[in-house]
Write a structure and sequence with these properties.
Elements: H1 6-32, E1 37-42, E2 46-51, H2 57-70, H3 73-99, H4 110-117, H5 120-148, H6 154-179, H7 188-205, H8 207-221, H9 237-241
Antiparallel strand pairs: 1-2
Length: 242
């Protein structure tokens, strides 16, 4: 295993924290903005009808794939767990904010606030159930293909893990939202197809970004083959000076 200097060890830890912050932000925001839907005509081939909450969500899978590849399975799972706590904490804040009565001069009334954030409780619950299944499936499949291909064909494990996990995520969250009557069942099929196809498209597009991130980090820290950075163990000061 490549031993990092203390300086590089600290840098690797800072990069991990930045990736974790971007992951958590993307996850929490996706739960807050999900009630707005839009359509997108993809070059006349297909018209997507999807929630804006989907827009930041694929970023979370890209980040966990980068972390899985460079920092290992354990650190990827830790980010997922942190995302769960952050989402439920945001839910608590929104619940309290919704219960506090607005003043007469408040630009946002109680009715408007509730109409925008009132469904967040259900959204977060549905998202977290889907999120738990999808992210852990993504990480498990990613490392399965990594072992099977002996660290080669990054594009293969990136896309194969993401395709299945994104279908599980899309199906689960829509099923729960329809079950709680936040979305009509008649929209389940079209939204499932649009959401899944959109996520597949994004997964294919983000592959070059995954390669760039992994290549850059591996080159920076001198990782060889399937080596991973261990940011839990610091190099000694003597090694850092040598």
């Amino acid at each position: 295993m490549t031993r990092l200097t203390l300086k590089n060890q600290l840098l690797a830890q800072r990069i991990y924290l930045i990736l974790a912050a971007l992951f958590i932000c993307s996850l929490v925001v996706s739960n807050l903005i999900f009630q707005k839907f839009f359509s997108w005509d993809f070059f006349g081939w297909y018209t997507f009808e999807i929630s804006v909450g989907i827009l930041p969500y694929p970023i979370t899978f890209l980040i966990t794939d980068v972390i899985s590849e460079v920092y290992g399975k354990k650190k990827a799972n830790q980010v997922v767990t942190a995302g769960i706590f952050a989402s439920f904490f945001s839910l608590l804040i929104i619940y309290i904010a919704n219960e506090v009565p607005a003043t007469d001069w408040s630009p946002i009334s109680n009715t408007v606030f509730t109409s925008v954030f009132g469904a967040t409780v259900v959204a977060v619950f549905a998202s977290m159930m889907a999120y738990l299944l999808a992210q852990y499936i993504d990480i498990q499949i990613f490392h399965f293909w990594k072992r099977l291909t002996k660290g080669k064909h990054l594009w293969l494990r990136n896309n194969f893990s993401t395709f299945l996990s994104q279908f599980v995520d899309t199906f689960t969250v829509l099923f729960l939202l329809c079950s709680f009557k936040k979305i009509e069942w008649s929209l389940f099929g079209p939204l499932l197809l649009s959401g899944f196809l959109f996520k597949i498209l994004v997964a294919a597009i983000d592959t070059p970004f995954l390669y760039a991130a992994v290549f850059g980090l591996r080159a920076k820290f001198g990782l060889k083959g399937t080596e991973e950075i261990n940011i839990d163990t610091f190099a000694s000061l003597e090694e850092a000076k040598s």
